[in-house]
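Tutorial handout. Part one gives the primary structure; part two gives the three-dimensional structure as tokens.
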Amino acid sequence: MPLRGEEFTGRTVEEAIERGLHQLGRRRADVDIEILERGKPANMLGLGGEDARVMLSFDEAVREAEPVVDEAEVPRRPDARGRAEGADEEAPAYAEELAVGVTVLSELLEKMGVQADVELSEEKGSEGLDVLGPDLGALIGRGGENLVALQQIVSAITSRKVGRTVHIPVDVEGYRRRREDQLREVALRVASRVRASGQAVTLEPMLAYERRIVHLAVQEQQGIRTESVGIEPNRRVVVSSTAPGARGPAPAPPPFRPPAPGGFRPRPGGAPAGAAPYGPRRSFGPRPGGFRPRPGGPAGPGDRTS
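Part two.
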């Protein structure tokens, strides 16, 4: 059996495995994983860390699996989460189809008991539906997850009504526009820092369409590359430099551990558990020569007299 093995590195074992699977275009079930080094985090000064190393072995006679396509290589939209990578893009909706989407979304909100208005935005480049009203945080959800699901549903129902597959963009109180602007700003700022320092930066976990925005925002930046690592829902974008001598992401600092309740803790080998932390109080005997009164004070029994 013709076996082939390749070595990959990462900040953690899991990151090294994900990087190898992505570069080989194979699934986890198609490879044998050997952990060569588990690595270790750097100290508080960022020194002394070691990358994890893994060996991925696979049978070259087996037909190559379809490559794992990243968001940086395939255009993705907010409602593309959960679809197969590289799936065909839905066609943009025309004005009359967006109008159907307004009706579909209004009926959905009514059935959900949400009091809100749906407006049609026909501004070139930002066509879509806007939901306006008070207390609409539940429609957005944590990190915009509910908004992604709502857009999927509206697009699916509208597609059935108009007889073709269309994409209906949905926004709630301008959340999506603000989020996209924020992501572009963060991506450009991080790219500038990576270019100056040579140190890669790992961003926070993001939805697929958010990672796509980051990839697009920095793709024109010279000397900067991006890749996605990790497994959903904790998949992240790593922004790194292509310059010689560039460094990988700095390991995360160790988590802060607050002191255990109970106040002072004696050092190992000190007093046994339950004993007073400083030991018993020690009394001191009288000074040599007996009692010495303060100047001008009354004489005591131990005073010397001439």
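Part three, for discussion. The chain has a mean pLDDT of 75. The chain has three domains: 3-59, 78-173, 177-241.
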